[in-house]
Design brief:
The chain is of the alpha/beta class. It has three domains: 144 residues, P-loop containing nucleotide triphosphate hydrolases (Rossmann fold), CATH 3.40.50.300; 115 residues, no CATH class; 104 residues, Orthogonal Bundle (Arc Repressor Mutant, subunit A), CATH 1.10.10. It contains 14 helices and twelve strands. The strands form three sheets. A five-stranded parallel sheet has the order 2-3-4-1-5. Strands 8-9-10-11-12 form a five-stranded mixed sheet, with helices on one face. Strands 6-7 form a two-stranded antiparallel ribbon. Strand 8 and strand 9 form a beta hairpin. Helix 8 crosses helix 13 and helix 9 packs across helix 13. The longest helix is centred in the middle third of the chain and has 17 residues. The protein is globular, with a radius of gyration of 22 Å. The two termini are 38 Å apart. The mean pLDDT is 93.
Length: 393
């Protein structure tokens, strides 16, 4: 146990002080006894746990961070370890990579039933279905999602500002006022292209090659988050990777499922399942026509965020696709997006039409269509700067 305390203290002491404090920190009900924090690999779940520990407990031994990658847990259950931690005065156990333990959900249930004075906060993959696939946790776990950096968070980090987030309704109706308050402190467009290229994943802060690190992370998403959690045999790994590549190269269009099945030598049904797994892993997003949903074929398959686009196939990154991906990724958190009607890009929440416009585009559209403008610092009326949608969270 002392080894884990030493590791915990070292990590707390060496966590960066200049990192962006994520808004999720204030959205979580920390009074809950069992809290699950899901998120795609690379978005900062480990850092989030450590920031919580440092902010609320410092080096107080009542809180302990553990990572189930540690071989120690190959021979010991979570509930057994939690019991010993509790006897030593522990109150809050932070468990990273919980799914690395084969009986993690059953063990968490045991902890919940046996130790009513213990709080557990754990992290897991976005592929995990905490309640649907683990009925023993239904009704006792509160689940939250940690996303990659928004443009707002990226801008705050780069410039030292503390801009707040705005709702979609605020942006639509008050964008001119909001933009003026931001422009008085910073020029967002000076940082926008950097964000599109490498701003979504916090590890751009590390002193390493960002693209190589992202490619490594993407491979881990498929090899661990999909194959391990969905219990897919290793021999099918190359098929899933090839499918992701083919979807990325094709651009944001409806997938030709029959051709994809031929290309990766599998069935149409398997292709659709793989596409769903890639979406669960936050590698792609599926955009449906209004009224449609899985298992129907999506109207468009898009990359989950713009950083992925520049890493998978950088020589074929088209500006319009990047802009639409940025818009989708930001609204996807709290809003429903469908393929837009003719002449528009997206239908949002069933009644709002948006057209994503490249710079130099001559805006001609009905008043009910919102034109989202690239490289525009400030908008007017139904013309709104694209970068401002990066302030939605």
């Amino acid at each position: 146990m002392e080894v884990f305390y030493r590791t915990h203290n070292y990590l707390i002491e060496h966590i960066g002080t200049s990192l962006v404090r994520r808004d999720l920190m204030d959205e979580i009900d920390w009074n809950a006894r069992l809290i699950g924090i899901k998120g795609t690999r690379g978005v900062g779940k480990t850092t989030f746990l450590l920031q919580y520990a440092k902010e609320r407990f410092g080096c107080d031994r009542s809180c302990l961070y553990i990572n189930l990658n540690n071989f120690y847990f190959q021979g010991r259950g979570i509930a057994d370890f939690a019991g010993e931690f509790l006897r030593r005065g522990g109150r809050v156990l932070l468990i990273d990579q919980v799914f690395k333990h084969p009986d993690w959900s059953r063990e968490l249930r045991l902890c919940y039933d046996r130790y009513p004075s213990l709080k557990i906060v754990f992290t897991g993959s976005s592929v995990m279905r905490l309640k649907e696939e683990n009925p023993e946790l239904n009704g006792i776990v509160k689940s939250y999602n940690l996303r990659g950096f928004s443009f707002r968070e990226f801008l705050n980090l780069q410039t030292g500002n503390n801009f707040p987030a705005y709702s979609l309704d605020d942006i639509i109706h008050n964008h001119e006022h909001i933009v003026k308050s931001i422009l008085s402190k910073v020029r967002p467009l000076d940082h926008f292209q950097d964000y599109l290229h490498h701003g979504f994943y916090p590890f751009f802060l590390e002193k390493c090659n960002f693209s190589e690190n992202l490619l490594k992370t993407m491979n881990m998403m498929i090899e661990v988050d999909i194959l391990l959690l969905k219990q897919i045999e290793l021999k099918y790994l190359s098929k899933i990777k090839k499918l992701l590549y083919l979807l990325a190269v094709a651009g944001p269009v409806a997938p030709n499922v029959s051709q994809l099945a031929t290309d990766i030598q599998t069935s149409r049904a398997t292709v659709m399942n793989y596409i769903k797994y890639l979406a669960d892993a936050r590698l792609i997003n599926m955009v449906y026509a209004d009224g449609d949903e899985f298992p129907k074929k999506p109207a468009r398959v898009m990359m989950h965020n713009t950083s992925l686009m520049y890493s998978i196939y950088p020589v074929k990154v088209e500006e319009q696709h990047v802009l639409e991906t940025f818009f989708l990724n930001n609204l996807w958190k709290d809003h429903k997006l469908n393929k837009g009607e003719k002449g528009t890009s997206f239908l949002v929440d069933g009644n709002l039409s948006f057209r994503i416009c490249q710079s130099g585009y001559k805006v001609k559209s009905p008043p009910h269509v919102y034109n989202v403008l690239h490289k525009a610092e400030i908008g007017r009326g139904n013309q709104i700067p694209l970068w401002l949608f990066g302030f939605l969270y």
